[in-house]
Amino acid sequence: MSSDTTEIIETDAGPARITWHQAKKARLVLAVSHGAGGGIEARDLKALATVLPAHGVTVARVEQPWRVAGKKLAPAPKTLDVGWRGIWPALAGPGLPVVSGGRSAGARVACRTAAELGAHAVLALSFPLHPPGKPEKSRAGELLGSGVPTLVVQGGNDPFGKPEEFPAGSYELVEVPYGDHGFAVPKRAEISQDEAVALITDAVVEWTGSLG
């Protein structure tokens, strides 16, 4: 993998940061942002940045303006969408199809803005189908409304929505057995943490390879 480069992008929500992980012969850009309480050092985002460039996918890990500003909590969804719109021209800059993605709150942003921004597809990691313990507050509409090919990667034990809670739809869903919202698996699980992460990267490699 070539050396990582970072750039600051001015958006209407403040400066955002992109860390680029370039593929030698890229055919896609996969842009992924973080959740509402974490950053781009999340295990799944780091793993994708390490693995995918060897498969012709340049990975752009995106830090929303609130993270760049050093704040602890994410702003309202509308503000997150503003930040994502602001970095899109930089993501599309290489002239390749852009897969819009993210984990948790970042997955919601990707779904909400995909059609408007012309995303090639959506990668939704740990999609927060509902707040923990409140299945009646479903966000399924955002997922079902992405309007583009969508892959959901969901922990089998995610309190924000277990795989079996997801509604029928035209998206694909890959389960990470025993995984929680951060894809952590307990020590007693039948798969190791490394195997859980490999499940994620293998699924995304296969899926991005299938995108026309």
From TrEMBL:
Protein species of origin: Streptomyces violaceus (Streptomyces venezuelae)
Annotated keywords: Hydrolase
UniProt keyword Hydrolase present: yes
Protein origin, superkingdom: Bacteria
Metal-binding in keyword set: no
Boundaries of every KANL3/Tex30 alpha/beta hydrolase-like domain copy: 26-207
InterPro entries: AB_hydrolase_fold (IPR029058), KANL3/Tex30_Abhydrolase (IPR046879), NSL3/Tex30 (IPR026555)
Entry's Gene Ontology molecular function annotations: hydrolase activity
The protein's name: Hydrolase
